[in-house]
């Protein structure tokens, strides 16, 4: 039914073009494993070939596991996504926002009103002492404390005065690792056990995910791996590739980014979700919990919509739910197609994209050309009617402050300097643009959706993060 030889040849060529150290791919369907293969090597010496049982970090793909834990607890009457955050953290507040109006639902959907702020990057820099880069040194200099407890994060959100909220809860989506840090500790309280133990007993063990663990420093993952674990590759300050086994340690962000797993195990997890909680004929998770996670409450359109830890969208009439992940030495992507299909692509180099690989997996199942795009921002060939309304400088404070500087020329064409990269903005629809590199207009760097009020943009959502406009 599937031409896996052609698929393998396509992935092999793509992998060679990308020059990544290693990649593990797995696809499951109702009939079982459709494709599984590792490409490249886990180490710089090329002595350990990668395979689908190699343990990788999965970074932010961890998030849906945390919200699934919350959904399970909701079906058991132990919490509700409608609970106010102050039920679990009485000291929590967002400046200018009634403290009882922020709920767990807002945290799970990144709509609490928290913009990109630096505590996660501070936490990594302050707690991963072995790592020394220019960025980490700058972060250590600016950090007010070690950001090693959830109380440190909540205090910063409530009392730092260092950011402007994005609006009322539910008004604006902006990806927030801090929100998922809080959800990790909500699970602890509602379940009466640590999130780590809950995931192990309620999700990993029942699914047979024997090579999956939530741990902070990688020690448990290394013990599980029995030698089959990917080294972490990244670029140093001089853009040279290096490798280490120094996992990012970010103590309060446990369920946000700290699961380590394999391509085989992750596809078990996603296939279970794609079958409403069933795996290999057994009901692993209550179907009501899966419905809470990604169900009918959330729209089905070609635009990605963030549910509870997964983006949901339509392609060729099929519902796809997915998430990517990235940290030092980690670039991952995984997803599911409702009806029994799951796929994942795990890579051990930081700050690269595995998107083309996972798109090829979707395309194999959907019967599309393997190189078919899943981009939702499609240039229209038209010009935006209010270019001057979006011109300005926008800031993200997620780490060392980053900027998106938007300019226009006399013909109304729009340009952006984004993370010091020069981009051309191609108008798509509404206030949505595809931001593409100047040298290669076929390469999309990000999407930009401008948030306009009273004739002027106050922010721009660069893919999922809102950069706020600086008043000039």
TrEMBL record:
This is CubicO group peptidase (Beta-lactamase class C family). InterPro entries: AmpC-like, Beta-lactam-related, Beta-lactam/transpept-like. Residues 7-334 form the Beta-lactamase-related domain. It comes from Sedimentibacter acidaminivorans. SUPFAM superfamilies: beta-lactamase/transpeptidase-like.
């Amino acid at each position: 039914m599937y031409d896996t030889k052609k698929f393998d040849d396509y992935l092999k060529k793509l992998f060679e073009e990308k020059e990544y150290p290693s990649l593990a791919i797995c696809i499951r369907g109702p009939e079982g494993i459709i494709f599984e293969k590792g490409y490249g090597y886990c180490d710089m010496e090329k002595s350990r070939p990668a395979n689908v049982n190699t343990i990788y970090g999965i970074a932010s793909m961890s998030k849906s596991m945390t919200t699934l834990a919350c959904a399970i607890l909701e079906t058991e009457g132990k919490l509700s996504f409608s609970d106010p955050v102050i039920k679990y953290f009485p000291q929590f507040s967002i400046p200018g926002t009634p403290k009882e109006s922020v709920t767990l639902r807002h945290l799970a959907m990144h709509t609490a009103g928290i913009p990109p702020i630096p505590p996660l990057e501070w936490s990594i820099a302050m707690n991963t002492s072995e790592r020394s880069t220019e960025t980490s040194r700058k972060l250590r200099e600016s950090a007010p404390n070690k950001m090693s407890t959830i109380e440190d994060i909540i205090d910063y959100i409530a009392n730092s005065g260092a950011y402007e909220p994005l609006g009322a809860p539910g008004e604006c989506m902006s990806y927030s690792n801090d929100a998922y840090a809080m959800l990790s500790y909500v699970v602890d309280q509602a379940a009466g056990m640590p999130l780590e133990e809950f995931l192990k007993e309620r999700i990993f063990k029942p699914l047979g995910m024997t090579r999956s663990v939530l741990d902070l420093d990688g020690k448990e993952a290394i013990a599980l791996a029995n030698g089959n674990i990917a080294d972490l590759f990244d670029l140093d300050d001089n853009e040279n590739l290096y490798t280490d086994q120094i996992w990012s340690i970010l103590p309060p962000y446990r369920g946000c980014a700290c699961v380590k797993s394999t391509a085989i195990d992750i596809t078990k997890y996603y296939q279970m979700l794609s079958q409403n909680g069933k795996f290999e004929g057994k009901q692993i998770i209550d179907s009501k919990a899966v419905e809470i996670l990604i169900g009918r409450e959330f729209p089905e359109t070609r635009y990605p919509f963030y549910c509870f830890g997964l983006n949901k969208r339509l392609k060729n009439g099929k519902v796809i739910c997915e998430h990517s992940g990235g940290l030092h030495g980690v670039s991952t992507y995984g997803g599911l197609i409702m009806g029994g299909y799951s796929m994942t692509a795990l890579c051990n180099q930081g700050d690269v994209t595995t998107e083309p690989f996972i798109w090829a997996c979707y395309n194999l199942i959907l019967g599309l050309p393997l190189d078919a795009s899943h981009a939702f921002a499609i240039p229209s060939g038209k010009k935006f009617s209010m270019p001057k309304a979006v011109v300005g400088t926008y800031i993200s404070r997620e780490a060392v402050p980053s900027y998106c500087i938007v300019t226009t020329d006399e013909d109304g064409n729009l340009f952006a300097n984004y993370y010091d990269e020069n981009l051309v903005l191609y108008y798509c629809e509404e206030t949505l643009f595809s931001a593409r590199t100047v040298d290669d207009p076929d390469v999309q760097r990000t999407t930009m959706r401008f948030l306009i009020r009273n004739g002027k943009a106050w922010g721009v959502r660069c893919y999922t993060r809102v950069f706020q406009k600086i008043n000039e």
